[in-house]
Each structure stands twice: as C-alpha cells, then as structure tokens.
C-alpha cells in the first residue's frame, strides 16, 4: 500500500514542517490543503513585529481577522523598533499591541529590541505595563536596557527560565554601556529564578564613584542558574552569585573600525578583578568555561589576563575553550601553571587558532609543552582563516561537502603536523581533534557568531594506560577501553605512531561525554 502525504496525521506533519524553511512553510500554507492548517499554525507560532508603526495592523491581524483564532497559536513574539517619521504619535500608540499581549495566553517567548527607545516614546509606558503583566513567559530577551529598562525588570511578573538582558545598542553610541548598581542587578527576581542567564555590556557602578562592591553572595544568589553568558563584564564580580553554575561563557570585544560595538579592555573595567589578592575562594565547579577575546591591546599584559586566570581559579573548569589571541604566551603560561594545581579539574582544552598560522605554530612550540605535567585528556584545535569574517549559516552549509572550502591553504601544515605534536607533548592525553571552519552567524552567541567546521578525531594509544578516559584521578570511566588491543595494532600499521583515527560520530560522543555532568562527577574535588 502506498502511503501519501494525505494519509499522515497532524503529529507527523508537524515534524515534517519543522524541517523546512519558513519561506517553504508559507508556500505550503497557500498551496497545500493537506498541510495548510499545520503550516499556518507553525508560522503563527513565531512572529516578528515592527513597533510602533505596525501595532494597529498587528492587532487587526491577530484579533479581528479569522475570528480571532490566530492568537492561540502565538508562542514567540519578537518586537522590533521602527519609530515613525512623525515626532508626535498618539498617546495610545502601544495600546493595540498591549491588548494583543494581554490576550496571548500561550505566549512563551518574548524578544524586545531597542527597549529603552520604545519605552521613551509617548505612550511607551503602556508597552511596559503590558510586558510587566505577562506571567507565562519561559524565555525573555530585552535589548538596549538602561534606566527605564531596569525599572521595568524590577516589576516583571513572569519567572522565565531563560533571561537575556543586553545594554548595548548600535543606536546608543557613543555611550552604549548602561550603568547599573551591582545590588540592583543581583536582586532582580527574574535573574534569581532563571536557569540560563545572559548579561551583556552592563557597567557596574556605585553612587559615590568608589570601587565597585561585589554583591554579597549570602544576600543575593542566583541559585537556579546553570548557564551564565557575559559580554564585556567582569566574571569575577558575578560568578560568585551562581554556586550551582555549570557553563560560563565570557566574551571581551571592542569597537570596530566603523564605530560599531563598544570599547572594552581598559583596566577600569576590571575593578573587581583588581581588588583580589592571592586568597581566591572557589565560587563554583564549572563543567565548561568558554572565553572569547576580540580585544586588541598594546601593553605587554592586560588586566584581562588577571580576569581570565582569576575566573579559572574561582570556577575550576573541566573544559576550557578559548583562542590563542595574537601571541599571548604570558596568559597561557599562567593557565598551564593553574592546570598543575592539586585542585585543578582541567581535562579538555579546546583552542581556537585564527588568522595567522605562525601564531598557531608559536602555541604548539611554546605554550603546548607547558601543559606536559597536567592531567589533560583531550585537546582540540579549531582553525579559522579570519576571526573577523562572519558568514551566514546557509553559506556554511553549502561548503560542508567541499573539504577544500573548509581548509585554508595556510593551515595545511598545522592540520597535518599538529596531532602528532600534541600527542607527544602531554603524557596524559587520550584524544586529539583538529577542526577547520568559519565563524558562522549565531544570534545566541555573545558576539553574534560561533565556530563551525569539520573535525578529525584521533585516539592516542599509550604504552601504559591504553586508550579511553580512564584512571580515578582523571575520570574513572573509559569511553572505548575495550578497543585498546585493536587500536594498538592499527597504530603500528596506521598513519602515525601512537595515533588511531576515529570517526566523527565517535569523536562527537567523546566530546559530549567530557563536557557532561556524568564525567565531571568522576573527578576528585
């Protein structure tokens, strides 16, 4: 019996629709009687609105047309800012949108751009009141938060599990970094109830212009936070608020040549870091610490070094992911020393190499040997031609099948030689990976892009401990210990002494396990 699309139930059609582009969904909604209702529901589940100029039109579309049935399917709404050319709008310009929000009982995710500007519009308080009254949100993202935005955050009724607050706006240059009292930020109920928190570009300040006081952890705790993303903010000031933190993502970047972005990297941004002495208490035990640096400095050592090393000391990560930034051997020397401490938990080093193959060779020659006495089990190198060049996801997908597109010519020597060099440098090592690719646009990443590429994996076959993640001091579970004998035979006749290439699927499984809570629990504290 031939099964046609007409015979599929809605549950199956929903899964099919989820795999196609939004444009194709719209076409199916207009042309296919079978799929139309499912496609329409999917389209209506996530909508974008230009406010306030389209508020009334949006109201009519959601509540007046189609017997008002569309509003029940709205799960996510993105409110973009598009101010009218006229200076004076009616005081009730946001009333239609407020009505829609009040009746959107199934709304679970809300994104508001240029929040400060929209609240400042005459009648913008109506929008603020409507947002404050929402109770069912699970995800909330507010962009361009300043004085009005912080006041709104203090009276929100919702308790979302994911919160993203961004102070930076391209339209607020030259003063894009919103100033906020540390205690005011720490005691926000929406942050105290969230499991995933993203804070970007807030500047912690005090009324008396004295040094920035850290909110006392015993008074304000974000106990539910498992993931924290910080952009241009000192993690040393905020990590202690999250005793149960598992994943910390930190980004430091500065203005582009055309004036976009924000300047960061001066010592006054690191007041909390500068206050610390050698007595640093562990704030949490991270599984993953992901650091991205896009700051150029001319001094021999920036305050940012102290911020990074203090963060490592305070969080004891299992996985450390960061790039080798323009020959910063001083920083890597300090990180290597920390990896040898008795309480160190570092087992997976994930290094991004970019732009200059000479810098990558410098890391292999000068920095890698510093980790020879560590307990690192896995090292992955990520190679990207231009860290400042972001490509669209669609462009990257078109390159995946063409290996030559993903490997820059000047990386070939590094890609061929690095696995053996790495395997010989660190006795404890069990796995090596090398990946080449691009920085791909990603709205969820702190700086708007993240690395994506194709990866090759190898198992390091040792004479004493064999293969796998083994040993009570380094993680008691073996990933592939039963393949030791087979791997040893392959190594003798394979491509290189001590290395056996494994397929990408197995490598992904190893990567996932080393980042997991299960592996972290095997490590001694």
From TrEMBL:
Q: What is this protein called?
A: F-box domain-containing protein
Give the organism, scientific name. Rhodofomes roseus
Q: Where is the composition biased (Acidic residues)?
A: 481-509
Organismal lineage: Eukaryota, Fungi, Dikarya, Basidiomycota, Agaricomycotina
Q: Which domain of life is it from?
A: Eukaryota
Q: Where is this region: Disordered?
A: 465-513
Query: Which SUPFAM superfamilies is this protein grouped with?
Result: RNI-like (SSF52047)
